[in-house]
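Hi X.,

You mentioned you wanted examples for the new student's onboarding notes, showing what a folding record looks like when two proteins sit in one file. Here is a clean example. The first protein comes first, with its sequence line followed by its structure tokens.
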Amino acid sequence: MADTPSALNCLVPDFSATMTGGKAFELQEYAGKNIVIYFYPKDNTPGCTTESIAFRELHPQFLEKNTVVFGVSRDSLRSHEGFKNKLALPFELISDPDETLCTMFNVMKMKNMYGKQVRGVERSTFVIDVTGRLVKEWRGVKVAGHVDDVLEFVSAQT
């Protein structure tokens, strides 16, 4: 896991991770599809809920564009299962408690929380194309309108 997608158009190293639905995420299993991976700080918080609902609402359009969506946070699989069920999310959530993917995609940042510096996930989204290359990234995402921007980008790719 030493390889890190550090630049656009680089090949993303194959990785596996635990996800909801009793499945393991394996990057190679999605060859031939665009992959949207969105990193978010925490299940059941206002911004993360809003962002996940936006991906849920546009999920059929992503599928039409040969694109699969996955959410990632450091929450446990149990937390993810509850969050996914509560919001009726049609896509899987990846659990990254040891920050392997967070480190791989360089989304761990120092943030201000109620006047204190805390280390946490910077809300970020990545698009991996059908060939396994990182083709787009959004960092420091503001939730409003973001999912529309992601859909617009993948629509332009197909």
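Then the second protein repeats the pattern, sequence line and then tokens:
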Amino acid sequence: MANTAELQCPRSITEEDRARAQIYQLLAVLLGGPPSGELLNGLASLKGDDSPLGSAYKNLAALAERTSPHDAEREFNNLFVGLGRGELLPYASYYLTGFLNEKPLADLRTDLRARGIKASEGVKEPEDHISTLCEIMAGIITGEFACDSDLPSQKAFFDAHLAKWAALFFTDLEEAQSAVVYAPVGSLGRAFMTVEADAFAIQ
């Protein structure tokens, strides 16, 4: 995908896998904090087509072009922070059990330990935050971590920690009352989760 930070891949990967990793990394950045002016400018130059992913890119570009960093930050806070809690709770535990810090988080931590993946220092969010999961998927695809990065490894992580809830979260984001520039982020995430699930299903 054009106009996102170039990923430094520890191993040689295909252009398709590089594009997949870049989408995961873009979602991770957008869902991990409010977009900077620089990122909004980059998003404004995205190109799309008539596919679900391409349509999401075009809508995101159009909205990013007329969204200020201040408005983007306010929208992000309304969606994910709020005065106690935001409109959405982007955690696997919440979507799968209705509560935070439940078994899905414990299962994820067990999996991360087995894969030798450690949480970044200074990160306060539980590891089952959608941003963290997208960042981890990008890292697995590019071989950033010591664990296996082949398709079976990617599929196992996706099936265990994203397949059961991420598309629903992105649909909720797409339709959220506070979402303006984040509505096409929801569309992008929903379409991409569908593409990933379909691709992994035939492995």
